[in-house]
Design brief:
single chain, about 140 residues, alpha/beta, Rossmann fold, four-stranded parallel sheet, 4 helices, 4 strands, about 20% strand, transmembrane, Glycosyl transferase family 2, membrane
Length: about 140
């Protein structure tokens, strides 16, 4: 009877090890296929809100398991908006690109949007110069 009990425990241990191995392989496969979400933020003198916007996007990406690509189109800011963005450039789970535009031309913004567009993903366009647009960002209430 003891040898049979040994074989049962051995089979149970092997089944548990197999389940753990399959689970770990599935986790690796899922982490390699993280969904990408693109955000385009158009700013002008937003130094008071910019840090919160970027941190909110970073938290959102981490909590949802998303890879976020954020492109900030800065329209001739005269305050510390660009300096704040430079400091936040290395946020975890967030790829941040900063593009400065000297004058406001909608065709310039449209041209940058064409370069940003991914094959499958159209970016979430948020013009922060319009106060109601900030509500498109997660964890931001206007």
């Amino acid at each position: 009877m003891i040898p049979y009990l040994g074989w049962i425990l051995f089979a149970y241990g092997m089944a548990a090890a197999t389940v753990h191995m399959i689970y770990r392989l599935d986790l690796r496969r899922r982490s390699n296929r993280r969904a990408h979400v693109n955000y385009v933020l158009v700013t002008h003198n937003h130094e008071n809100q910019m840090e919160w916007y970027v941190r909110a996007l970073s938290w959102y990406g981490r909590l949802r398991g998303l890879s976020l690509n954020v492109t900030v189109l800065d329209v001739a800011s005269e305050d510390d908006t660009l300096a704040i963005l430079q400091r936040l450039h290395n946020q975890e789970g967030l790829e941040l690109k900063i593009v400065g535009i000297s004058e406001v031309h909608e065709e310039d913004i449209g041209q940058h949007m064409i370069h940003i567009m991914d094959g499958n993903n159209t970016p979430v366009y948020v013009d922060l110069r319009v106060p109601q647009e900030a509500s498109k960002l997660p964890y931001v209430h206007v």
